[in-house]
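Hi P.,

Sorry for the delay on this. The queue was packed all week, but I finally got your sequence through. Input first:
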Amino acid sequence: MKKIAIYGKGGIGKSTTTSNLSAALSEKGYKVMQIGCDPKADSVKNLMAGKKIPTVLEQLKEKGDDLELSDIVFEGYNGVLCVESGGPTPGIGCAGRGIISAFEKLEELEAFEEYNPDIVIYDVLGDVVCGGFAMPIRGGYAKDVFIVSSGEMMALYAASNIASAIGNFGKRGYASLKGIILNAKNIDNEKEIVQKACDEIGTNIVSYIPRSQDIQDAEHKGGTVFEFLDKSIMKGVYLELADKILEASEDI
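Then the structure:
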């Protein structure tokens, strides 16, 4: 089993990239589980026909000890298993703590043993890397980390902070940074800007995702390019990304 965490600044296209990656991996015959770790709980909607699914925290609150895996794990596009950790009511409670509670419940219910996925992908908000948001890497849940970034200053600033956190946890035998997925915003000299940041961080560009209207068109239809745009060249881009992720990540 490969366990991967994908981090990135909010709004960078992380969840879109992750969902298309999960779809690509499923097309290659892998059994994939995608776990959204963002209070907005919108990580897997493109795998669920554009609809949000009940979150672990919502179901915990409603069902308590009667909660079952079928209440929180849903089958999406091409068999991808979808989970959303969820978060507290805005302004009340800690979003990071919500992620911790969700992870603990998935572990208690033996989700990985029950579904036996080949690949688990954690889609994690990366504006801050503290508490629950660091859970995938500090808790030993994920082995390999990839960061989605563009050439924008704030995206690269967040990437640098995430890389620092991974470095600190890596010293204790936890996850390691495997590279940056460049989700292009068509900035002048974008590849060069991101490569320079990679040199400073001590990593590399794993894959280049060009900006494409196809991605937005598929999202507007409620899914990934694999589900709605059969002839899109972006399918090849995400299939190549899947190959590079598989090559760079380790089995646990």
